[in-house]
Amino acid sequence: MAVPKLELRPLGNTGLKLSSVGFGASPLGSVFGPVSESDAVASVREAFRLGINFFDTSPYYGGSLSEKMLGKGLKALGVPRNEYIVSTKCGRYREGFDFSAERVTKSIDESLERLQLDYVDILQCHDIEFGSLDQVVNETIPALQKLKEAGKIRFIGITGLPLEIFTYVLDRVPPGTVDVILSYCHYSINDSTLEDLLPYLKNKGVGVISASPLAMGLLTELGPPDWHPASPELKSGCQAAAAYCKEKGKNISKLAMQYSLSNKDISSVLVGMNSVKQVEENVAAATEVALFGKDLETLSEIEAILKPVKNQTWPSGIQRS
Questions:
Q1: NADP-dependent oxidoreductase domain: which residues (predicted)?
Q2: Which residues contact 285 (CB under 8 A, 6 or more apart)?
Q3: Is 37's pLDDT higher than 60?
Q4: What is the helix (H) or strand (E) element at residue 160, kind and residue range?
């Protein structure tokens, strides 16, 4: 049987079309447990085979290991470079944050070498709330524009947790300077605050990528890792929702994925993956929602359980791996 291809969605004004599910490569840096090179390569190949064309990494993930592993996986595809879209980041490294023009300019050369590429499609300033937003506006982004002119990157992005950082920067740079934003943990069943920002971003012609539809593990049967910064109320609310789904023979992670995928104004939902099995599960969730729509009944029941903790966020101080 032919595999239904993933939907491709336009990314702002870039002209790029991203698969609705994106491959988050941070797990390839062994940040959630060891991943062998053969597993890393196999998961990238399977993702591409099933229609994922967007791969996102950062020099920070696994202290540059994620970029190296993703580079090996992409090389193993043996397809023309224009068939996949690669995004990496700058400004956040194992040794700390540095958004200076000098460091980000050097950073892209290091990333290209690890990724074994001549250019990346998107270079994003990584977790900008930890730096000076004014430096990002006045120094980092102009440096990235030079990299764009040099052909090392095609588009410029910014990432971070608090939503107000996006409006702060976008209100202060010339229109069309920043092409894309990557927001995480603000478009999932427990927190949909990104929705309020979508009309503003659309008006600016900025593409939107949303990461962590499972809210960094809150919306899983296993529950979040020990370091998760959510409040005890939010954790127990999500735990109750997961248990409720399990009782009904449903999987909360799959429902959460489908919830995040159903908003077409979000170009791609990034999910961390490190095995063929994870790739297959995520793509299956997406193709199922495309064919049958989301499970509205169970979703509304989960939303009722989560209502008391809806849109509760946490401070950005978390040192995410």
A1: 21-302
A2: 254, 257, 258, 261
A3: yes
A4: strand 153-160
